[in-house]
Amino acid sequence: MLSFPAYCFIYFLGIGGIGMSALARLLAAQGYTIVGYDKAASPLVTQLQNAGMFIHFTDSVTAIPSVIRQHPTKTLIIYTPAIPSDSPILNYLRGSGYTMLSRAEALGSIVNHLPTVAIAGTHGKTTASAILAHMLYESTLAMLAFVGGIMHRYNSNIIYNHTLNQVQVVITEADEFNKSFLQLTPSHSIVTSIDPDHLDTYATVATLQENFKQFIKQSKQTVLVHAKAANQLQLTTHGYSPLLTYGLNNAVIQADNIRIAARQSVFDYIGDGVTIKEIILPLPGSYNIENALAAITMGLTLGLTEAHVRASIASFPGMQRRFDYIARNEKFVLIDDYAHHPAEIAALLSTVRHIYPNGCITAIFQPHLFSRTADFYEAFGTTLSIADQVLLLPIYPAREVAVPAISSQLIYDCLSCKTKILVEDGKLLTILPSYMRQHAYHVVVTIGAGDIGTMVPAIAAVLAQQLLQ
Q1: What region holds the Mur ligase C-terminal domain (predicted)?
Q2: For residue 57, what pLDDT is reported?
Q3: Between residues 235 and 284, the one the model is more confident about
Q4: Concatenated DSSP letters of 388-443
């Protein structure tokens, strides 16, 4: 299996992204020489370097490795849309005869000729993808999965259980940002949610919904849609692939007899003619039960047995930054989560409140993107106020240029929790101890899609020093 047989070298612009790094790992496994650029080092980039990939951090034409400059006809360029349009490297390569593909185009080229399950949604797609990927990895079906996060046990965002030339089914996330998911023509698809997001791409909710409808139309076989999303899109089975809905209620696929604890959820799967009782999912939260419903339904569609579903769900190892327990002791709990949309934060903090009704919940939130903050600052204020205390960090810009009128102050002004703190850049570890003294049990939740995940070890150390001595 060679995805791009005309090329020997592949140069990734933005190689450190979760989707780009997965492609780099796959193509390295196929024998290509992988070279990459990213704006900064990260733990994920270090993993790629340790795997033998050369990566540089300067956006300059002179920094382009000689092997790339010397072989323009044998080099394929794969770039992320997060690369600025005025990037010197990007513009040099565009003007120098190189073949260039966006990440979405490259992914489509790799998977569209294979039986594929594409999982889309403004939230939930990573967990649903990971659960399904783990279920299939544990089966005899030859599978390949691209997941938008790092899975515990596998320590990777790409997994496969046979040699790559034997792949029978591919699992991939289908990202709605920049309309990337429209590059896919999957065999089966899942839509987990369509709450408004990426309005910098779509401008209106109606346009976002029309693009999700187009994604569904491109699916060739089974389409599985969360009941709320199906209602928002006014979807029926008419004019689309065979369509099933799922959700906690008012859906074809439902959960019953639900019990949620600190480290797991237990439920009965009620499907279309199928019931699987007492499924143990090692993740808390009703929203994670819904993600599991989607994964289970697709697993059954692909031929997994009920017994296999039950056993593989129970052994799901979890993921980094998805209700990820970093510390848990007699004085405090530290949970790290990637939530970056108001609906995700509401689901996360409501689950935390359910599990720890008597704990003092402190949310440490780093807003992601100026555009998203401008669109949802009121909703962020409402959902974060589920916590008792909120420590609000500066906005993480990611691909965006700073907008002076948009700051974390907008969210701060909408908070109604007991304690709220606007944290200056770089001051979190200094001020954190002063908010960790007055309560018997602390539940600290780090939240955001930026670089807050890199701060978590230091936060854990501060909490341990303050509360365990």
Answers
A1: 321-410
A2: 97
A3: 284
A4: SEEEEPPPB-TTSPP-TT--THHHHTT--SSEEEEPPTT-HHHHGGGGSSS-SSEE
Mean pLDDT of 441-455: 95
Beta bridge partners of 143: 169
Helix (H) or strand (E) holding 88: helix 88-94
- Dihedral over Cα of 273, 277, 282, 284: its sign: positive
Q: What is the DSSP string of 389-403?
A: EEEEPPPB-TTSPP-
pLDDT score at 398:
87
Q: What is the pLDDT of residue 239?
A: 61
Sheet hosting strand 442-447, strand order edge to edge: 324-328, 332-337, 442-447, 360-365, 389-392, 419-422
Domains and CATH numbers, the chain: 9-106 (3.40.50.720), 112-314 (3.40.1190.10), 324-467 (3.90.190.20)
355 CB contacts (<8 Å, ≥6 apart)?
260, 261, 262, 284
Q: How far apart are CA 324 and CA 464, in angstroms?
A: 17
> Which residue do the tokens 């196929």 mark?
30
Total length of the chain: 469
**Which two tokens mark 467?**
């509360």
Lookup: tokens for 268? 């009965």
Q: Return the pLDDT at 200.
A: 75
Pair of tokens at residue 286: 């009703």
pLDDT tens profile 73-108: 999 999 998 899 999 999 999 999 999 999 999 999
> For position 132, what pLDDT does the model report?
99
Q: Which residue's entry shows tokens 């006809």?
A: 73
Cα distances from 311 to residues 141, 286, 314, in angstroms, run 16, 20, 5
The HSE-up count of residue 308 (CA atoms within 13 Å, CB side) is: 19
Smallest Cα–Cα separation from 419: which of 452, 384, 443, 449? Answer: 384
